[in-house]
Design a protein that fits this description.
Chain A is mostly beta strands. Chain A is 0% helix and 57% strand. Chain A is globular, with a radius of gyration of 13 Å. Classes of the chains: A mainly beta, B mainly beta.
Chain lengths: 115, 117
């Protein structure tokens, strides 16, 4: 099983609908992230969380909100989806120490299409 | 501010050719991490390498090699004897070494590599 799991993997929705992307991890990492990927733009940070009580905006947080329900769970919500939010969304975790310090561990991605 | 530039948007090569993917970064930090990730057509992000700014030794892993030069702020990636399975988007990324944003990566826009049989 994947260490970082995203659901749903694919979702098609309509403009104005509320959509939630969920992420859960078994790596025991405190830090979790939501990135968005658009063709030719690389990955851009939406929100990140250092622990359950700490939520921070990234580069492109407008139109999004997040919830850190537990150390292992970090959800991304689009309150009223619009077509330019069509993208591939990645959840990631990271550790602060050890041999993997700084490395991001990614989920498999959630492809969202807003019609 | 942190910035990563991958000037090559797309590269096409024929199988068995060597190919180098360029990565230039900007940071005011004296310590930092650099990464390369691979994204095959299936879409997942695959970690390839992490390099600490203290370690300027080049690294080789099979057909892959990385050339880190602090003097030119570059961290280039070479694939020797490319194969069709190397076709993917490759991302270079930069992370702070310490402080509140440790673990937050700044990505380049990626280089699409296509290897033709």
């Amino acid at each position: 099983d994947a260490d970082v799991t995203q659901t749903p993997r694919n979702r098609i929705t309509k403009t104005g609908k509320r959509i939630m992307l969920e992420c859960s991890q078994t790596k025991g990492h405190d830090r979790m992230y939501w990135y968005r990927q658009d063709p030719g733009l690389g990955l851009r940070l939406i929100y990140y969380s250092f622990d359950v009580k700490d939520i921070n905006k990234g580069e492109i947080s407008d139109g999004y909100s997040v919830s850190r329900q537990a150390q292992a769970k970090f959800s991304l919500s689009l309150e009223s989806a619009i077509p330019n939010q069509t993208a591939l969304y990645f959840c990631a975790t990271s550790d602060l120490s050890g041999p993997n310090t700084g490395e991001l561990f990614f989920g498999e991605g959630s492809r969202l299409t807003v019609l | 501010a942190q910035k990563v530039t991958q000037a090559q948007t797309e590269i096409s090569v024929v199988e068995k050719e060597d190919v180098t993917l360029d990565c230039v970064y900007e940071t005011r930090d004296t310590t930092y991490y650099l990464f390369w990730y691979k994204q095959p057509p299936s879409g997942e992000l695959v970690f390839l390498i992490r390099r600490n700014s203290f370690d300027e030794q080049n690294e080789i892993s099979g057909r892959y090699s990385w050339n880190f030069q602090k003097s030119t702020s570059s961290f280039n990636f070479t694939i020797t004897a490319s194969q069709v399975v190397d076709s993917a988007v490759y991302f270079c990324a930069l992370a702070k070494d310490r402080g509140s944003t440790l673990g937050r990566l700044y990505f380049g826009r990626g280089t699409q590599l296509t290897v033709w049989p």
